């Protein structure tokens, strides 16, 4: 399968500058304490942002650090997670994760992607988000929005987010990596939709988009 990239870095920068202007103030990277970033990122999996914030605050009020979470009662944590999808899976995983952090990492969140990927329930998207938001590292956090939009743009030709992450590393300037997820998340929610046709006629980056140009041509 061709997972190569098909766009120049200058064009990537130009498009992302337009997205940054379009979603000004809604695409910034906010750094946080590693424990909170890790736990809230797990809570956010398949869960809306408003719910994630409310549930995370509830969990942190009861379990403010790794030691507290490692000693948590699973049923109590399950109840606190109400509003987060798949809480029956997340509750035992969060406790198991905290125990591993206690035993293997002296109660700290590791700043290494391989170590993060060994934790229960942590995939590449979550691990990269933790590296970005907890440790200010250069990483690309590819979610379904970013995977979809970069394929529609024609920047990559990939079939899953991991392939997209690797392909984007070759064309996206490194200084744009960390903030890219927030921009594409905003664009995916507002215009480049998933459950309905993308709103290409309202899209500020349509001139640079393969899909947008193809659908425009098909109408004439
Ligand atoms: S032109 Fe259409 S497909 Fe391309 S990024 Fe914009 S909304 Fe998405």
Automatic annotation (TrEMBL):
Keywords: DNA damage, DNA repair, Endonuclease, Glycosidase, Hydrolase, Lyase, Nuclease
Domain HhH-GPD: 43-190
GO MF entries: class I DNA-(apurinic or apyrimidinic site) endonuclease activity; DNA binding; oxidized pyrimidine nucleobase lesion DNA N-glycosylase activity
EC number in record: 4.2.99.18
Enzyme class at the top of the EC tree: lyase
Record keyword DNA damage present: yes
GO BP terms, alphabetized: base-excision repair, AP site formation; nucleotide-excision repair
InterPro entries: DNA_glycosylase (IPR011257), Endonuclease-III-like_CS2 (IPR004036), HhH-GPD_domain (IPR003265), HhH_base_excis_C (IPR023170), HhH_motif (IPR000445)
Signal peptide: none
PANTHER family assigned: ENDONUCLEASE III-LIKE PROTEIN 1
Family (UniProt): Belongs to the Nth/MutY family.
Protein name in UniProt: Endonuclease III
Organism: Gloeobacter kilaueensis (strain ATCC BAA-2537 / CCAP 1431/1 / ULC 316 / JS1)
């Amino acid at each position: 399968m061709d997972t190569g990239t098909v766009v120049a870095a200058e064009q990537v920068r130009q498009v992302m500058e337009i997205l940054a202007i379009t979603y000004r103030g809604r695409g910034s990277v906010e750094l946080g304490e590693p424990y909170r970033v890790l736990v809230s990122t797990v809570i956010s999996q398949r869960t809306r942002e408003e719910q994630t914030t409310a549930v995370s605050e509830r969990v942190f009020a009861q379990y403010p650090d790794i030691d507290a979470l490692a000693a948590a009662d699973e049923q109590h944590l399950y109840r606190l997670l109400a509003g987060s999808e798949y809480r029956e899976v997340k509750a035992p995983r969060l406790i198991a994760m905290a125990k591993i952090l206690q035993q293997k990492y002296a109660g700290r969140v590791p700043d290494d992607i391989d170590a993060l990927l060994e934790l229960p329930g942590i995939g590449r998207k979550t691990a990269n988000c933790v590296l970005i938001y907890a440790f200010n590292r250069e990483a690309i956090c590819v979610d379904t929005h970013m995977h979809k939009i970069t394929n529609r743009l024609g920047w990559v030709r990939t079939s899953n987010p991991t392939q997209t992450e690797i392909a984007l590393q070759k064309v996206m300037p490194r200084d744009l990596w960390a903030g890219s997820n927030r921009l594409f998340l905003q664009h995916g929610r507002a215009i480049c939709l998933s459950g309905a046709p993308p709103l290409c006629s309202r899209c500020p980056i349509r001139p640079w988009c393969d899909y947008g140009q193809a659908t425009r041509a098909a109408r004439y």
